[in-house]
Amino acid sequence: MSACGNGGQWQLALGLLCIMLELELKPDEISYDAAISACEKGGQWQLALSLLSNMPALKATPNVVSHNAAISACEKGGQWQLACLLLWQLPSRRITPDAISCNSALAACCACGQWQMALVLFDQIPDLDLTRTEISYNLAITAVQSWRAAFQVLSQLLDARFSPDAFCLSTAISSCERAGEALIWPIQAAKDS
Length: 193
Prior knowledge:
The protein is mainly alpha-helical. It has helices at residues 2-6, 10-22, 29-41, 45-54, 64-76, 80-89, 99-111, 115-124, 134-143, 147-159, 166-179, 185-192. The protein is built from twelve helices and no strands.
């Protein structure tokens, strides 16, 4: 199933899962994770969510990998609200979110132009007892439509002792360009760090 998913053959991956069920092979969490991931890679967010929700009835316990693949499927399908909902439901399901969970939901907000929600998620990452990654900062800077917000995130990135990469800086510069603002302190701050 993983090979099918990696090859873009989500239908074949689901077919293999059905064959396992017909042969009473009792697919486990790894089997469902592979099938959900195949759906995610194939842009089939509805099927990914359906598999995730049916796992308990089929005696398989959804885990963080299952949820991460479903969140990523929602991102690829432009379903930012569902991606955020899945992330926020993890603690109530006794599943600890990880950086992939957060970054996938953040990417969903970015892809759909939901920059304010992206900043809310970005701000909540520490509340989930997680550390923001460089990817988190890049996604937040990419998402924002306000040069002030972009530089606030860039400042936090510098405070966290990450070095801004070319992508991060060019995104910040672009936000200034859209706003018609001069770019002085962020470049100096980057040089000083």
